[in-house]
Design a protein that fits this description.
Blueprint: H1 19-23, E1 31-33, H2 36-45, E2 49-54, H3 59-69, H4 72-81, E3 83-88, H5 93-107, E4 114-118, E5 124-128, H6 142-155, H7 157-172, H8 186-197, H9 214-227, H10 230-245, E6 259-260, E7 268-269, E8 272-273, H11 274-291, H12 294-310, E9 321-322, E10 325-326, E11 329-330, H13 338-345, H14 347-356, H15 383-398, E12 405-406, E13 409-410, H16 411-427, H17 431-447, E14 456-460, E15 463-467, H18 470-487, H19 490-507, H20 540-555, H21 559-570, H22 572-577, H23 583-593, E16 597-603, H24 608-619, E17 625-631, H25 637-640, E18 655-660, E19 663-664, H26 671-678
Parallel strand pairs: 1-3, 2-3, 16-17
Antiparallel strand pairs: 2-4, 4-5, 6-7, 8-9, 9-12, 10-11, 13-14, 14-15, 16-18, 18-19
Amino acid sequence: MPSHKMHDKANRLVNEKSPYLLQHAYNPVDWYPWGNEAFEKAKTEDKPIFLSIGYSTCHWCHVMGRESFEDNEVAELLNKYFVAIKVDREERPDIDHIYMNVCQALTGSGGWPLTIIMTPDKKPFFAGTYFPKHNRMGMKGLLSILDSYGKAWINSREYLLDSSKGILNAVNSSKPAVYEEFRTNLIQEAFTQYKYDFDNIYGGFGGAPKFPAPHNLYFLLRYWYSTKDESALNMVEKTLNSMYRGGIYDHIGFGFSRYSTDRKWLAPHFEKMLYDNALLAIAYLETYQAAKKSKYADTAKEIFTYILRDITSPEGGFYSAEDADSEGEEGKFYLWTVDEIKSALGVEDGNKFCQYFDITSKGNFEGKNIPNLIESPYSVIDKEFINKNREKLFKIREKRIHPHKDDKILTSWNGLVIAALAIGGRVLKNKEYTAAAENAAAFIFNKLIREDGRLLARYRDGESAFPAYVDDYAFLIWGLIELYETTFKPEYLEKALNLNKDLLKYFWDSQNGGLFVYGSDSEQLISRPKEIYDGAAPSGNSVSALNFLRLARLTGDFDLEDKADELLKAFAGSINDYPRAYSFSLISLLFIHQKSREVVLVWENSDAETEKIIDIINEEFMPFTISMLYSSENKNITEIAPFIADYKSVNGKPTAYVCEDFSCQAPVTDAKMFRKSLGS
């Protein structure tokens, strides 16, 4: 847990479940959670709202917390002039999304902590991110901001109200959707933009800071598959190799940090997020299938080791994140000195390990060292040596004071891990991964569904709360589709379809197409945005478009294909403007324009030949293929996909049908013929 000064008296955050809000429960600031009580107080006392949005593993949130929110002088001003509200962005992405748009519109950038000052009816007139306590190097300090806006509310309120109207008009002035057609060369344009942005030396795109954004790599893999352009696969491999070699990867305990502060992937902000690790595991698994190199499978296995060991709850769900800070210092848990390595491994092995991992007396991060392989002098790495010594260092590191773990369970990010583990289970033939994915799905359906069937967004400490957002539905449906294609259990497909119906019921914009961030039955905020842009994770809209397409193929319900087309065209103007920012939507467009392929397997009882056929499906990279099973154990699949009843086994043998562009090849009953019919 970050080291926060504790004050004797708790504020109202002490009754919350969010780890982030609880970190501020003993601040001298009289914090309120978002809710009627705070807004009523602001109206009654005629005060503006000071809104602070962050999350529990955010480094600069901790810095601002220590400098300002634990400080009596700041608290006195805040409590005098404002009603102060704290929001956990991971619990309330709807609030965060709206006010982050405000911040970006006003300042040209955004980030966390997010600082907003607004009227008692939630209309903002000031926005920014981190502020130091005092004015510093041309940067306004929080004390002077609070003083000037507190007084302005009393003395020149009309000016503030006018500016809030202008801000709201700017944020809400997005044009209604014009159903444009996509440009014919859009996919090629996007690829050209990726090539232009690509860092040929260190992989990834653009300069510092560098984010993994694995969905960019998914697009490039599919582009390579469609065009056979090797440069696309080379960009993916270069990026994945460079990230793995960098300090953004935890070489001692596994798992990736959120992003790199430099171009080389050396120095991360050390927090580890669940969603990054899930999405990256998929990127490494798909690249293993595409490039047939075991090192990518090994990295995916290490990511899963980290997830299952460190951030899995006893109940089966997955925790959200681990902090960058421990003992109040960024990265302290992860850093090493030469002496520490030698004392742990002995002089000879210690020296060799230091040479491998760039550990020097000078240090590569604030006088200490982030283990990395960026400039490693060894072209071939002695894996046995590294594994043996890594385990010794891991055991020593376990005795250190650990970073704070944010142990809330988010439906959206759990959906991504379910997808990753299900893919891992089938690609790596690992039943443990499949079982973990199934356990997590069972956890969500046991704990995060309201009595009326409505999906919820967050579980912590026995409490489920917040009607689920678009990402919760989209990512969980994705996870369930992957679980179906791994286990062939119809229940997962059925659950995915039921959630998809609810998604359309609560989120679909019947006027302009696309899906809103929050549901029609949720708290209605000052605007109701939609998002197609793929940021650190893909957007709920872009993932839903691909879900609709896959569900249409799996069930024969082609109304869902029309829905995907409608959704994508609602955002065509934005996507046409700069396709590179919408990589997951481009994956859906590729899926639409590629030859569709379905593999239908039919058998009474499986045998050795069956296993071989399934192995072929799982080992090949076939991103535009869906696979289904009709067997004695899952006859009820016909209730979801009636068309499958037409497929029969040949002479009672396990039989595979490969269908492309609405016509099927002759059925095959052995693995060799099956491989041939796939054209691989």
